[in-house]
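Researcher: Here's the sequence for the chain we discussed earlier.
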Amino acid sequence: MRGINDGAEPRLVAEKPSLDCGLARRSTARETCSTAESGGTNPRSIHIVALGSECPGGVGPGEEIMGQGQLQGGLLWSYLGHGALVGPCDLESSLHNPAFMEYTSRVFGDVTVVVRDCPSWDLLDSDWTSVRKVLEQADILVIKYAVTDKLAFQQVRNGYAPRLRPLLRHWGVPVILVAVGARLNEFEWQHAQNLLSLSQCARYPDEGPPCTCPLCASDWSSCVPHSEGLQLSRDLGATYLELPSLNHVFVGRYFGSVLEYFMIQCLKHKAKERPEKRRGNKVNELRPPHLEQPARLPPIRVEESSFSQDMQWLLERGVQFADVAFYAGDSGKELGWAHAAVLCAVSPYFRQLLLGPKTRERPQSRCVCRERDGGPHSLLSTWDGGIIDDLPRSEGHMTGRLSRLVVKDPLLCMCLWETLMFIYRGAWEWEHLQEALEEKLKNSLAVAQLMERIRSLIGRDRGPRDTPSARAAQLGPQTLVNLFNSPLYSDVIFMVQGKSRANLFHATRIGKCIHRHTAVKGSVLPAHRAVLVARCDVMAAMFSGKYAEARSRVVPIHGVSSDTFLSFLEYLYTDSCCPASVLQAMAVLVCAEMYQVKRLQHLCEVCVCAYLQSMPSRELSSTGISVIRLLRRAKCHNAEQLYVWLLHFIANNYLIFSHKPDFLELSEEEREQVERLRWPSRGYLQELSEYQQRRRKLRKSRCIVM
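Model: Thanks. This is the structure I predict for it:
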């Protein structure tokens, strides 16, 4: 930062064209104003509202707002000069507030400038309604602060700027942010440059930065940096100025040039809004009716994902579907149970351990991983995999084969439950796992060793990509992607009796138990009971109760196409749904309503709305999709959000749907609601018809005169 004295150049940051000299701009302004306002009445006035104080300390509560002496030393008064008159202005009496000092002046010859200056920001807290009324009348807003008063600047930036920002963007009022004063270290630097001799100045080059030692930088904590003022101007959409002092050079040449630019633009804008035009008075000219914007379509709300909670529930309470048991290597005590499908989907080590060749030897490793201390080879080993399942099952549940694993590592044996919970929740919450291990082990070295072993178990070593952003991409729903439509550890097979042909080759690969069903037309979709029970309450009741599905491996599905049911299973495994069309989205919605999966139903509603809203008007009028029938199906299958959205969509496109034959299928209540929300409204169409008739009559009269 360069030193600034009375002859230094102030900073100007603006998105407008650069403004050079105030005197040249004033002469240009007179010519522009006389040109823009010629040929009519002359109600030329500009209202400027100023907030804040350019003096350090400002005006505190209980102090006098502003006196005549303080006013004459202010920024705007210095610019207006001797032509300013203090007194009441021509604004409405309801806007009068004693906290604002009002004075008027004339610029460009006959343009009246009304200034309302309020140096105290406390008025925004005590009487916000009055301040807002004053701001509504403003053509230009000037915000001032002292560079050496950092506390007041922080109050404005953190407390008052967020309140003013939406109003200023809505009204489109130009804003000028002015920082008055110079930082002490800048003056000290300039003063030192003036006092030193030429030989001494060689050690302090002109273009060098000021000293950053503690003595010279002692005032930095009390001064507002240039970067913070510039950031505040960007937040407010303002033009930023820094004035070292309020002398005639800085005020007239720099601040005056910027202010005159905005005054000229304001006068041009007012000249365009005047009803009179240069060629003549056309007040009685016909104007077309105003068409309002259509009402906004109601939003579709979707619940947050419960995938991690569902998998956690499966680990905690899904014992009747477990097929893996863990035992301690030293005592043989049972430690817990899990599901082979989930373990194999997450960990390649479990996949190799559980799917390897089965023998009746004593516990030993089935993994051929790296042979190092603490590696996966020393963590687990298999016990006779042919032992009959003896876990507690519900009545009627089919029994299977139970895989028993021996935990040989003592640390993993102590924290097996936390490790399994980490795996079931997606194997990506490493921070939560480390916190749980630290709370249980109370030993940082043991925690580090166990974390390294779990990484080897999962098959994910620490590397340069092991960052929070990289782990965020590996969310929990992605852990079961490998199980979707895969025969790996599949214990249930859905025979979808749809229109598609049978996949005989795929059915043969799944198992011998369905050879007798290969002659039936349909699709074969393998699945896993554990995942289905955790993700769908209807399937949990179907596979847990005294139903035929709980005792059978093959489950027939009727009334749903294979593509629709495959999309339904895809959501259960991946927690996502991407239908290819409106009709497929509606079909998946019906399937989700059948199995009571509310979140999938709402996702399908969002897809239907997105597809319909993306259609242009020409395609919407010629498409073969009947929106009225979609409305009927949404009401029939309890899609309340989609039903309300389609009613508003039909109303917003009334001119398209009202000419279709199926529009008569709407009930009387639905038709009344559509007529009430229709766009464009009947009143607008009537006004448009009258306007067109008047224009025809006016054209005929002009032709007769010609």
